[in-house]
Amino acid sequence: MQNVDITIVGAGSAGLTLAALLAPLNLSIVVLEQGSAPDLSKVSHQRVSALNLASQRLLSHLGAWEPIAASAAPYTQMQVWDSDSFARIAFDASSEGVAALGYICDNEQIRLALYQQLHKLPNVKFEFNCSIKSLVQSEREVLVNINQQQLLLSRLLVGADGINSMVRSSMQLPLTHWDYEQQAIVATINTAEAHNNVARQVFLPDGPLALLPLPQAKQCSIVWSCKPERAAQLLALDEQGFNQALTAASNSVLGVLQLHNQPKAFALTMRYASSWLQGRTVLVADAAHSIHPLAGQGMNLGLMDVAALAELITQAIEDGQDFCEQRLLRQYERWRKAEAQTLIAAMEVFKRGFSNSQPLLKLVRAVGMTGMNKLPWLKSQIIAQALGNSGDLPKLARPASRYKVSV
């Protein structure tokens, strides 16, 4: 039997970031992952995330940002429009006094950069291709049975194992969920015209289409959200048919679009655990919540979760307190639940508002978006939130010292 301070289930970006944040505390940490170790050969920009400035600051603190940035694409402008009305809004980095509004990063590259910071540390151990047989919790520890009857006895267990979290299920933490009734088609595409580091999103009648710039000047990643039957129709098309449908949906904003790799689709579901905590087990990131990708904030939300949890654990250790105290873990839960609830509600408003084809509502959203585009102070408030420059942020993600930690 192995005794450790913290077991992290899940070696995605959130789990690895948490391990990197906690490693300097000289805690013994084990990271369990059912999949393989991060692999440079898997960096293909098939699955990407839009990291905001708060996430960039956090990853820079960990020394992981430089290798991530080497294969990332900064976007300096954002253009959003409604295909069914005159609604349009645009954001520009120069107007906000920043170098970029965000960065389109390959998910595997994020994992790889974090893993390279961790895998040589003596107090951090990894178990890849790992199967968890059971979790048993007592007042003082969590017993994890893995692989061939290997036993881990951990003071704290963190579930960072994604939307289908085994930790959440094993601890029977209640889950609220609803089907967005959409699938997201993802692919890398080649464009006839240069993207000029502009992130674009058009709201179509059955869901948004995002064109996210990649490092090559004429290459983008797409996230096309649409009804399942429409997704099935699109995926059934031959390559030429798909290219024509995609070009038409984008209003040829970048000229003729062509697939660079095979498109894939996945279902979109909102998940929200009404409790993120049971005894010495706590949830973070997608294990606790998942949201619609239309604003590209899922990864950022998860990274702020682990930054908040690490901050509270660090403070407890510095104060000579038990970092597993329920008071501390409840503080984390309250803090991050508030942020997740706000974003989930905002995404639902956006989705419902732009999926409604009633003429009056189409007019209202068109007037509202166009009016917002002409109000600099309102636009600045919106973009500050998207940039990760406002809100109740963990210390390492803050642009300045004016924000306070929730209690």
From TrEMBL:
Keyword annotations from UniProtKB, A to Z: FAD, Flavoprotein, Monooxygenase, Oxidoreductase
Pathway connected to this protein: Cofactor biosynthesis; ubiquinone biosynthesis
Cofactor dependency: FAD
InterPro entries tied to this protein: FAD-bd, FAD/NAD-bd_sf, Ubi_Hdrlase_CS, UbiH/COQ6, UbiH/COQ6_monooxygenase
Domain FAD-binding: 4-344
Entry's Gene Ontology molecular function annotations: monooxygenase activity
Gene3D superfamilies: FAD/NAD(P)-binding domain
One Pfam family linked to the record: FAD_binding_3
Membership in a protein family: Belongs to the UbiH/COQ6 family.
Listed name of the protein: FAD-dependent monooxygenase
Species in which this protein is naturally found: Rheinheimera muenzenbergensis
